[in-house]
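quick one, two chains, predict together pls
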Amino acid sequence: MQIKNEICVDFLSRMENVAFARLTVAAFLLAEDPTLEELGDIKTAVSEAVTNAIVHGYRAATGTVRMRARLGAEGDVEIEIVDNGCGIADIAQARKPFFSGDGGERAGMGFLVMESFMDSVEVESAPGEGTMVRMRKRLGAAQTAAARA
Amino acid sequence: MLAYRLRGGDLIVTLSGELDQLSADGARREVDALIAEYRPRRLVLEVGHLEFMDSSGIGMVIGRYKVMRRSGGSVAVRGARGAVEKVFALSGLYEIVERLA
């Protein structure tokens, strides 16, 4: 992908930074004039990924979450959420809907939301090695499809 | 942000602003305290003024559904729209929670 713009932000794994992360991505993408639906999808997916990094990656500990967002020349968006937390032993299980790694009130829907709202989601993780979630979505895909129809 | 009113056996709670993991923790404590105080037959969550909700909101609603079920009560959701409705629809929550227009 030919990169048109890119940001990289590090922040502490504090819950109030979930809103910071999704609003930052929204601000980054505004110049591309995304639809409300595209913006909502991306904000929600980022919220899920960052919440997972804080709740599951770092649990009670505090660490750094890195968010990198890239915008390609064709309107393609790539977002990486990286933590150096405990990692995921069984990625396939973690991605299953309604599996939640904690006993609280998490719905276990984080990856389902990311997969439904983005075009693709990749996860790289190993126990003790942290987790990287890479999500992609092409802006303007709906308009392009409508124009073709 | 949360406001409430009582009508018949309904406890009607209006949520506004953004519902994520951080705010869902506060909302669940407040709603549970209201349920314990007023013992409604039905909890109606008005979400038309929510500007954002991720799956933390779904966890919050499922949790309240369990609380209401214990006393034979039910939960309804009213007014979900846009991105909020998209998360509700994806979750399958409307199979256990009534959807009001």
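Strands of chain B lie at 2-7, 10-19, 42-53, 74-78, 98-100.
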